[in-house]
Amino acid sequence: MAPFLSSFPRRVVVFNPTGRYAAAQVAAMREAGTNLVAGIALGRGGEAADGLPLHDDVRELPEPADAAVIYTPPEGVLDAVRAAAGIPLLVVAAEYVPVHDALRAAQAARAAGSWMVGPNTLGLCMPGEGLLGSIAPSFCSPGPVAVLCRSGTLTLTMARLLTAAGIGQRLVAHIGGDTICGRNPHEWLEALSADPRVGAVLYCGEIGGDKEYALAEAIPHCSKPVVAMLVGRHAPPGRRMGHAGALAGAERETAAAKLDALASGGARTARDPEAAITILRELCR
Question: CATH number of the domain at 135-283, please?
Fold first, then answer.
């Protein structure tokens, strides 16, 4: 099971917390109850940002962190992940990370035993426990459904719709919208299968890539029911829809082909959010 599922991180460090976007997320994470202990900002060690003590290097922390939220620009992600490798959970916010850098970062995190979320992620929220990133806690509510999404917009939409429908969430995670993810959907499913507090898993995918095929193979081995919804059924082939990962270049990358594979694997498929909510309401009775 992923380390954050057994115990929400208690010592969280933020890389590059001084930018305007990062500073806003620092405030949101604090408001959600996340214990932020330090920031990493090269050249500003010894200073403070909004009460957060700053260090030049993660090795200067007085105690080890158990999660890091990384707000470095795309070109700095690889160095930041290498520096943070070994921290159990890494959340990498930046979009447009160079593909080879993203590959190397994912490899470095995996080799060090870190669970990397992203790049190009809003992070994750565990309702009632804490927030790592920028998913609005007010959209979420505690409950048994684990929500995994490739799209940031869909992450927020589904959390809010589920909450409005009275269906709470164990976890809401934007696993990353780029072609390369630190952990792929089937790995998330394997981790969630071992969590006794998860009653069902909602996977929201999209066109592009082939990660859903490994997910389909993992579903029969999952102890939880899986509901799958994919957006982009009407997207024209070869056109990127919103971000780097959402581009169908071959038939197997289309929403229809991937939904068929997921259904064959045992997922209950939904054409739209309303249908997904109907299925989950039935499963969570």
Answer: 3.40.50.261
